[in-house]
Amino acid sequence: MKKSAVALAALLAAGFLQGCESIDGGSRDQQGVSVTRLHLGQEIARGEIRVESVDPAQASSLDFAQVGGRVERELTRLGWRVTPANPRSEQVAVVRFSQMGGGETAVSELNVRIQRRSDATVAWEGRAQLQGLPPASPAERGALVDRLTEAMFRDFPGESGRTIRVR
Fold it and tell me: Reduced to 3 states, what is the DSSP secondary structure of residue 65?
């Protein structure tokens, strides 16, 4: 088991470094979401899972509720039983949403890591990025998060270690 954890860690590091790429400017509708997914190519067990923020201080925020709810929807669609009230579920989806930059252009990024709680072994990790104008309203932010989550989980688990564009 430790060999697979080390292999996954190396794969994750190499994949995310390889997956770094520049996204030319333009509107969100003209460019695709840049998506990188990493896994060991093994079947990922579906069962109870809890969605948690990478930052515990953000766990009860409205912003995380918006993002976490969309990740929960995708995990449910893929066959997991999302259990928000079970802080001891064996599987956990650790989520981080960030926006960098501002003014004319910002990069919005969603990261999700599905791992075992008992030993933190990562079964799957994904990153979705989109460059464009920052959302001007909560509705636009919700639409942006929808687009990122849908792109990230499309054709789950996806090809490991390759960055693709999802339009």
Answer: helix
